[in-house]
Amino acid sequence: MLEDNEGFATEQHLEDWVIQKCDGWRDHFEANYSQKFEEYYRLWRGQWSAQDRVRESERSKIISPALQQAVESSVAELEEATFGRGKWFDIKDDYMDQSPEDIVMLRNHLEEDFKKNKVRKGVAECLINAAVFGTGIAEIVLEEEKEMAPATQPVMGGELQAIGVNVRDRTCVKLKPVMPQNFLIDPVATDIDSALGCAVDEFVSSHSVEMLQESGVYRDVDIAYASPDFDIEPDQDLTRYDEDKVRLTKYYGLVPRHLLEKAMKDDEAEDAEVVDFEDADKKDDSFYVEAVVVIANGGVLLKATENPYMMQDRPVVAFPWDVVPSRFWGRGVCEKGYNSQKALDAELRARIDALALTIHPMMAMDASRMPRGAKPTIQPGKTILTNGNPAEILQPFNFGQVNQITFAQASALQTMVQTATGAIDSAGIAGSVNGDATAAGVSMSLGAIIKRHKRTLINFQESFVIPFVTKAAWRYMQFEPEMYPVADYKFHTSSSLGIIAREYEVTQLVQLLQTMSPDTPMYPKLVMSIIDNMNLSNREELIQVLEQANQPNPEAQQAQQAAQQQQAAFQASQTAALNGQAQESAARAQKITVEAQAIPQELEIDRIKAVTTNLKAGDADDKEFQKRLEISKQLLKEREVAVKEGNVEATPAPQAAPAPAPTPQATLPQGQLPQ
User: Fold this and answer.
1) Considering all CA atoms of the chain, what is the largest pairwise distance in Å, rounded to the nearest integer?
2) Per the domain annotation, does 433 fall within a domain?
3) What is the domain range of residue 574?
4) How many alpha carbons fall within 13 Å on the CB side of residue 442?
5) Which residues is 301 bridged to in the sheet?
6) How many CB atoms lie within 10 A of CB 148?
7) Which of 16, 87, 179, 585 has the most CB atoms at less than 10 Å from its CB?
8) Domain assignment of residue 11, yes or no
9) Torsion of CA 410, 412, 417, 420, to 10 degrees
């Protein structure tokens, strides 16, 4: 089966195969989307058409600005979220690469070249197209430009300096917005990469094609003027201009390999790009090959080459405002508010017509009583001659007054437009594109924008901004290696959504940093995380300085070790002194304990003395008691001597021998003292 297809295809030419595909895709677009997109465009522009008429008697042609305001407000909010902080994209190296300096240079050069080539303007136009038609499309175009710089050159042996200009050819990457009626894609595809191919079909000036032919980009063949085609005009309400323009069809996608080979072999231009298909066939035997084909006026082949880009990617990016499942074309603001807008316009036009009848009512006249030749028109200051009483000849029709409920109905319909589109007037949003408001106000406004249009913002940045920045970086690396000496093709691109998310993270890190002391180990890590998440031009330099500051210094380490040793020695001496003081305190406590144990014995001796005061001398029992008392005193003196010398353990003192029971004595008379 494949052989039969190949045999049939060999009779075709490449340009016929491409035009056949494009014609089928255009038929599908015109049958399903063309009429709707035209009406969306008119409503956004506020242009009335005869098909907007609800009834035959309708005379008013007013178009409510509700849908216009919704489109402009939604686009303004997304532009603020994308470009509000100046830097609308960022590039970081992959995590496996240890030298991110080349990626830093890549980011800085891209920012400069994007500003020079007005890429931001093209992105804003794509946002408008997405809001109106539901899908924003752009073509990545490479243009050769001459870059001039002043220069001086020594002449006459260096005695004089000749002032001149250095001119060098540069390849610039530009973003070209594409209108939906000028874009063709495989109807079964849901994105650019999954389609068989896509094409940009539009009118261009003939001189631009001739200049590319002179430079060798296109074949040097005769090109006639294009036949008029109303469907691909950028503004279909303008008068067509059919002279000095060429219909250019640029196809990006898969084509049969043998057709491309045949087209390249038929190319007789000297500077044409020639592909060695014999070697290609050895490497890849697939039936289709990724190619770039340019056709003029539907049949003249200007360029046919295998995809020249190093990543084999297609130079087209597109994103839907809101995703429609299983479709490439999305759902925009105009489609959301279409029904409410049509009802609002019908209400406003009916009210204006009613006001016209009320203020300027119709007049009934008696023609038999009007002068011959009188014109039955009513205008201010006109004098009408009548044959009789004018009250009986002229009679206005009374239509009453316009119902006031129509004003409430119009207000409700306008609210319905805002509800359907989700757009709110952004006049009160803090901040501006130039960033005049405070950081807190801008962050709050950006948070509200992200919350209301998060899906659209994600579609825009994931499907449009990030692929564009990535493809632009690859093209600069390939075609401008001197300006972009970057060999690292693996990097991570983030857009404003990621930048805003990092700003919220920075806020949290700053709050955490305020709760910590600079001496804590986590403090340098937090500072480095804050700088890494901030969108600073010298971010990498600051991180490098912090890393160097956090690296240990050998001299500082030695000094720290010496200080630690001194501290340890000091602590050891302090410990020894404290141990000595503890031993002294223990001995003192032991002495106090022994003395406290001796006190009860002294008290007992004093008690015995008091008792023996009334004993008689010479008695045998008294003598025995006196003998024992002397022995107790002698033991007490020995104990005191031992305590003073510190050789006594904390043992209880020996108890004195119990004294014998005293001998009963005769009771003396009261007041008589013993002899």
Assistant:
1) 186
2) no
3) 556-645
4) 19
5) 295
6) 10
7) 179
8) no
9) -160
